[in-house]
Amino acid sequence: MLAMLSLAGVILGGASSTVLANTTSTGEAETAKSDVAENATQDLEYGEEINELCAGCHGEFGQGSGDGEYPRLAGMDRQYLVTQLRYFKDRSRLNIPMLPYATERELPEKDVQAVSAFLSSIELPTKLAPVDESNFDAYERLLASKRVINIARYPGDEEQGKRLYARECASCHGSDGLGKPAKLAPRLVGQHSIYIKRQMEQIASGKRLHDVPDDAEVFSQYTDAEIDNILAWLSVQDD
Q: Does residue 35 register a pLDDT over 80?
């Protein structure tokens, strides 16, 4: 009987230890999750502060400029943004307006991570919500309109552009044009058409690296009409 009680004690003791261990592990996991969430919030707040400087060119919400001089950054993949900022810093990618800011002193790695996280978290609607006449606020409507980004239709043959995009671009940038983070391939839908065209021209001339140097030759073989057709198709995907 004593042996049985001893055995029962071992079994119960083992079960209690397991429960206690599981409870402790669960508590530690929840604390870790809480810390991660708090750090993420702090990073976004810090990233928003950094973006006040970026906003002078890229817009308050990272919407870029319609003339294509400055790209949309809002909603871009975080790691893609991190990678591009690192390229600017080590001069792998040259851009004169970025030179004063893309230095270790002005933009240390902590800042690169924070502002990239903030910009990637921004969601910009493609159209305004329907008007609620019973609760209409003109000022709120004005503020909401500043966050809307809808790419104007680009002149070209959309159907031909769709076929060319599917053949030449979709494997990296996604069939829907929203990019593939695993490949660090950015979204093209929702990006300003003139900006995309300028980047394609720079890749063709060798001024900007695509994936490999040989891509310059591939891009240089596209005709202006083919590029315009791709842009035409991309421009209507956010309608």
A: no
